């Protein structure tokens, strides 16, 4: 009988990616109902260094495979290792970060295990069947991000496998000391992929997820002149720039910087919201901000319901005055 909530610990250059702690949080919320153990799987060349970082992550069990070479981006080979690990562990669910690596590896794992893979979940809920068994309702935006759908893995197919969007769950504050099991009998097969070099990415999303101060633009800041003021303001105070969906739709900001239910969830210390009405689909993505400041001409705008400070004024005038233009 499949048992356990398994989290894939994505790693690069000997470091566990921070999104793993978010998935462990999601796993804990499932464990509260199902009582299953939380298992973390990891594979890599610097395996002991990786498992050391995971021991106090809040997992109950750690399963690891030490590979004989660096296998970053060798998704064809790594997916075989992971499929072999999952066959041995037999978890009821597998939580994977919805990152380019996670998506690429686990689409291959799903084929090897003949199970499904739900992409890009933003909410995982546990439900119970009449026979008392549990299953996961995998909620995600769909159809051009216009509706929320609930996907359920067909009964009897395990593991229930899903990728979870980074930034949705608060990172788990690690505790405990999990036992590590090494699978010495699983070897990394040959790969058809050879890494020829690495170029650092312009990590726009990472910068907005990690930023302590974020300036968020809405339709009220959509005009080029207003957006230029917003950019100058963000530059001056050293803030990252996020936006509402209309700004992502018009290409004013990349999708990776859209905040909200179908975008990203941010938890900065300070968020300054400019020309944003405060629709629930947007505020869901900023509700954990510690200090919220809003500028909106409409003093009845819903954004003021969540703002700590508000300025009911034209953002162009406020920014010009601040920037002394
Ligand atoms: C399924 C679904 C998912 C969605 N997901 C998201 C999501 O992830 N993120 C998201 O943001 N939205 C999302 N939306 C859209 C959401 O419902 C709102 O339509 C959107 O957030 C509104 O964006 P806005 O506040 O920029 O624009 P508006 O609602 O048009 O508000 C613009 C505001 O700017 C103010 N304003 C205008 N000019 C000025 C000025 N000169 N100075 C100051 N203030 C000014 C106006 O008073 C107004 O309040 C989703 C919708 C659906 C149906």
TrEMBL record:
Coiled-coil residue windows: none
Q: What GO molecular function annotations does the UniProt record carry, in alphabetical order?
A: electron transfer activity; flavin adenine dinucleotide binding
Q: Which UniProt keywords apply?
A: FAD, Flavoprotein
Entry note: cofactor = Binds 1 FAD per dimer.
Q: Where on this chain does FAD bind? A: 219, 244-245, 258-262, 275-282, 296
Question: Which cofactors does the annotated protein need, by name?
Answer: FAD
Q: Determine if Nuclease is one of this entry's keywords.
A: no
Which Gene Ontology terms describe the biological processes this protein takes part in?
fatty acid beta-oxidation using acyl-CoA dehydrogenase
Q: List, alphabetically, the InterPro entries matched.
A: DHS-like_NAD/FAD-binding_dom, ETF_a/b_N, ETF_a/FixB, ETF_alpha_N, ETF_asu_C, Rossmann-like_a/b/a_fold
- Database matches in SUPFAM superfamilies: Adenine nucleotide alpha hydrolases-like (SSF52402), DHS-like NAD/FAD-binding domain (SSF52467)
Where the record annotates domain Electron transfer flavoprotein alpha/beta-subunit N-terminal, the positions are 5-205
Q: Please give the Pfam families that the UniProt record associates with this protein.
A: ETF, ETF_alpha
Q: Which family does it belong to?
A: Belongs to the ETF alpha-subunit/FixB family.
Name of the protein this chain belongs to:
Electron transfer flavoprotein subunit alpha/FixB family protein
Q: Which organism is it from?
A: Mordavella massiliensis
């Amino acid at each position: 009988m499949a048992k356990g909530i398994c989290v894939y610990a994505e790693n690069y250059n000997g470091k566990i990616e921070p999104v793993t702690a978010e998935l462990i949080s999601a796993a804990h919320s499932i464990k509260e109902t199902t009582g299953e153990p939380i298992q973390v799987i990891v594979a890599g060349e610097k395996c002991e260094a990786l498992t050391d970082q995971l021991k106090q992550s809040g997992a109950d069990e750690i399963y690891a495979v030490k590979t004989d070479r660096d296998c970053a981006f060798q998704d064809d080979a790594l997916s075989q290792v992971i499929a072999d690990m999952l066959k041995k562990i037999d978890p009821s669910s597998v939580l994977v970060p919805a990152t380019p690596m996670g998506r690429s590896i686990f689409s291959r794992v799903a084929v090897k295990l003949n199970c499904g893979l739900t992409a890009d979940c933003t909410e995982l809920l546990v439900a119970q069947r009449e026979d008392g068994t549990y299953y996961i309702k995998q909620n995600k935006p769909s159809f051009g991000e216009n509706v929320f759908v609930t996907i359920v893995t067909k009964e009897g197919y395990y593991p229930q496998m899903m990728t979870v969007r980074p930034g949705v769950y608060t990172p788990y504050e690690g505790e405990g000391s999990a036992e590590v099991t090494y699978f010495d009998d699983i070897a990394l097969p040959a790969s058809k992929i050879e890494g020829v070099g690495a170029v650092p990415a312009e990590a726009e999303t990472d910068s907005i997820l990690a930023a302590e101060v974020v300036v968020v633009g809405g339709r009220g800041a959509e005009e080029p002149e207003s957006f230029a003021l917003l950019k100058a303001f963000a530059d001056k105070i050293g803030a990252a720039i996020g936006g509402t969906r209309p700004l992502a739709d018009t290409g004013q900001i990349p999708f990776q910087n859209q905040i909200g239910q179908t975008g990203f969830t941010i938890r900065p210390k300070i968020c300054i919201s400019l020309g944003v009405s405060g629709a629930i689909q947007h505020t869901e993505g900023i509700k954990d901000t510690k200090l919220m400041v809003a500028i909106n001409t409409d003093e009845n705008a819903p954004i003021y319901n969540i703002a700590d400070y508000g300025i009911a004024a034209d953002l162009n005038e406020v920014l010009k005055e601040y920037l002394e233009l």
